[in-house]
Write a structure and sequence with these properties.
The protein is an alpha/beta fold and 392 residues long. It is built from 15 helices and ten strands. It folds into two domains: 287 residues, Rossmann fold, CATH 3.40.50; 87 residues, Arc Repressor Mutant, subunit A (Orthogonal Bundle), CATH 1.10.10. Strand 1, helix 2 and strand 2 form a beta-alpha-beta unit.
Length: 392
């Protein structure tokens, strides 16, 4: 089993992708959330050293860079960061000597979360939690439930779930004999020897994982399918406490099984749209890097077989009567994940306006008196519907 203390010797590509998504999201997030003037705090729950031994920056440095940029624009903002780190608090403090508006908590994530949930807090606050543990043992589902129960003005959580490692550990706990694929055995996972079925239930938010692994043991599904089923159920549980969930599989290469799933939870449709767009961009950047700028592994015929329905087909399937554009985008993201950006959907609707889709805008005119073609749901009320008979 890999030693977690070796984790910071070199920053891996999949870890770079996680931090890239966090860093890119914080720019529009802070621009929108600080506009309200409410206190805002970013909590990095497993902060680490801040800098890897190979010189690569970690999440705390990205967080503080974004905070510094906002404070440079407006020094009166009530904006800060909290970094929780048990093993490397001293190193982290040394790597943040030039930063301001932060606190380092030298201790356990579980202790901090328990105290945070139980103590009185100003509900008129914004909190963003980045929960990126080395393994699965710290991801108690009740922590997320507890955070949502506080009633904060805004709460968003970006959590790194080692779904493959969870299932591998589940097979061990249930004493299943079916061989785990070699790529799953190679997954980095920190355990402490205290895992049990009850503890795994607490992480997953239920015992559904046991039935999934029973199907794997009985050769009814393969390990890849087990991972996808596990994440479907896990996200369904999260939707009982958050309105909107989106996730991206973090892989070493696009054809590989996920090393992790980066899961984003929010009650804000703006947050959902922003994170979906950033995850989509990160995924496409990885594809381009793998293929020297070529956007596809496949021929057009192979790609169509894999993709299935076109983006226009997907939009068409979601339309029943009139629906507001923002609600349509939420439905599309729920069903298609990060496959497309909100802009992709807007362009597809616009290109087929008056032929397939009826678009009603209020106000219908621009400030210069021209017919509006805007797809900005924040700027005006926009509803979409099918044009009867346009597809036979």
């Amino acid at each position: 089993m890999p030693n977690p203390r070796d984790f910071f010797s070199q920053k891996k590509e999949w870890s770079k992708l996680k931090d890239q998504i966090l860093n890119k999201y914080l720019v529009p997030y802070l621009a929108k959330i600080t506009f309200s003037g409410r206190p805002t705090c970013i909590v990095d729950c497993f902060a680490g050293k801040g800098i890897f031994d190979d010189g690569q920056l970690g999440s705390p440095l990205f967080i503080m860079s974004n905070i510094a940029d906002k404070l440079r624009d407006n020094s009166s903002l009530n904006l800060r960061a909290v970094f929780i780190e048990k093993n490397y608090a001293h190193d982290l403090r040394a790597n943040l000597t030039d930063a301001a508006n932060f606190e380092i908590i030298d201790g356990e994530y579980e202790d901090f979360i328990s105290q945070f949930i139980s103590k009185p807090l100003d509900p008129n606050s914004n909190f963003f939690f980045f929960v990126d543990p080395y393994g699965i043992k710290n991801l108690n589902f009740s922590h997320f439930e507890g955070l949502t129960s506080i009633g904060l003005k805004s709460l968003e959580i970006l959590v790194n779930m080692n779904s493959t490692g969870f299932l591998r550990e589940g097979c061990h706990i249930l004493s299943y004999s079916r061989t785990i694929p070699s790529w799953a055995e190679d997954q980095e996972l920190e355990t402490d020897g205290r895992n049990s079925s009850d503890r795994m239930d607490a992480i997953a938010g239920g015992d559904y994982w046991q039935r999934i692994l029973e199907s794997f043991q009985n050769h009814e599904i393969d390990f890849h399918q087990a991972e996808e089923l596990f994440m479907e159920h896990y996200i369904a549980r999260l939707r009982s406490i958050f309105r909107h969930i989106v996730n991206i599989p973090i892989k070493e290469r696009s054809r590989h099984m996920p090393k992790y799933r980066l899961v984003f939870m929010t009650n804000s449709r703006e947050g959902l749209f922003l994170m979906t767009n950033e995850m989509n961009k990160a995924w496409h950047a990885m594809l381009e890097n793998e293929n020297d700028g070529q956007l596809s592994f496949f021929s057009e015929e192979e790609l169509q077989e894999i993709v299935g329905q076109t983006i226009v087909d997907k939009i068409w399937m979601e339309l029943e009567g009139n629906i507001e554009l923002s609600e349509l985008l939420i439905k599309l993201i729920e069903h298609n994940g990060i496959a497309y950006t909100t802009s992709n959907y807007g362009v597809a609707i616009k290109e087929n306006e008056s032929t397939l889709f009826k678009v009603c805008r209020d106000p219908s005119k621009t400030s210069t008196g021209r017919d509006s073609r805007s797809m900005d749901w924040e700027e005006r009320q926009i509803t979409i519907s099918r044009i009867a008979g346009s597809r036979g």
